[in-house]
Amino acid sequence: MMKKKKKKEDRAYSKKRSKIIVKQNEKEIIWEPNSGNDLKLRAITESLQILSPEGKIEARKVPEITNERLLSAYRNMLLTRMLDERLVSLQRQGRLGTYVACSGQEASQIGCVMALSQKDWIFPMYRDTGMIIEMGVPLETLLNRLFGNSQDDALGRDLPNLYGWKRYRIASFAAPIASHVPLAVGFALAAKIRGDDLVTLTTFGDGATSSGEFHSAMNFAGVFKAPTVFVCENNQYAISVPVERQTASSSIAIKAAAYGFGGVRVDGNDLFAVYSTVKDAVNKARKESLPTLVECVTYRLQSHSTADDWKRYRSAEEVERWRHLDPLKRLRLYMQNVRKIWSEEKEVKLREELEGTLSSTISKAAAIPPPEMKTMFEDVYSEMPWNLKEGLEELEELEK
Ligand SMILES: Cc1ncc(C[n+]2csc(CCOP(=O)(O)OP(=O)(O)O)c2C)c(N)n1
Ligand SMILES: [Mg+2]
Q1: Any idea where the domains of the chain sit in the sequence?
Q2: 109 backbone φψ class: left, alpha, beta (φ>0; ψ -120 to 50)
Q3: Prediction pTM value
């Protein structure tokens, strides 16, 4: 009897074998479901995958990406990971206010931007350092923002991870979750009315899908046919709340059906799956003015932010399992073993180069003084009102 039951379970696993079995030191680890309704397990087994965790091609349709483009994407993924680690450490040393890390989500973020054209805009979330880098924001500009120094375009007035640069086609956003999602739809519709040939892409987390803004934006986009690509970076948690407490739907992608357009779920740690799916969605938006929802199944390897400790709500084993699905590792293996354009030596050399660039750029940004205090009274009104003038005068007295 026991034997029979075991066999049945084996069959269930082996049905999607390549998707749920990961290898660690030659040993196979099976992803055990916690319950009959384990959304995390289903999310991995039922998403589009092109590149396996071992760096092998799993699907027939492989996107056409030149070696040059692939190397540049990998470089930005590694830069994002190394920058992330440095920033968390700087915050721990008390040299940076706060930081929201994105380690583990690099393929989702960089794959999205690779699919865009030079005219398209992004409406990102706070965790999208990889997108900011792939959009071409120089490291100096990004670090000045994070340090909030006097060279920061926002003069240190915003939270470090709340980015926004018009010249890089990155819309600024606010801290309330999903408040930027309807703006991506409005911007796309305005562009459509004006005849501008552009698509907007907005990213948000799994937690954001419980907000009213997510649903009204999706509804509006469906009814008025907005050229918008919605990308949910489903990293399994909204701070400490796991995705299975966020929704009773079988996936996040399925929610698109209620608004009359397509939803696709992809392995968010697979650069090829993200890139090709988002590229199709961008083409659909550009050619047919139709929205798409893409769910990237991924995982946040670090804490929610530097004000959080993941050990309070998830096990080390769970984090370890996801480490084997690392987006960088699988791309590196593919470049090395399939395309033959990468090697251990190249990896060491690139890491050394990026280490050097990061050290010098961080030292430079850290040494730039903070904005002058008086700047907080400026830039709001064309003519300063009496109450601000009074505040400024008081400050000048104090500074004498
Ligand atoms: C409207 C609103 N409610 C609550 C918060 C507090 N908060 C900040 S981040 C966060 C979790 C969001 O999770 P998710 O959307 O999955 O994105 P992730 O941080 O996992 O990338 C919450 C609840 C907020 N900023 N805004
Ligand atoms: Mg989340």
Answers
A1: 67-367, 373-400
A2: alpha
A3: 0.91
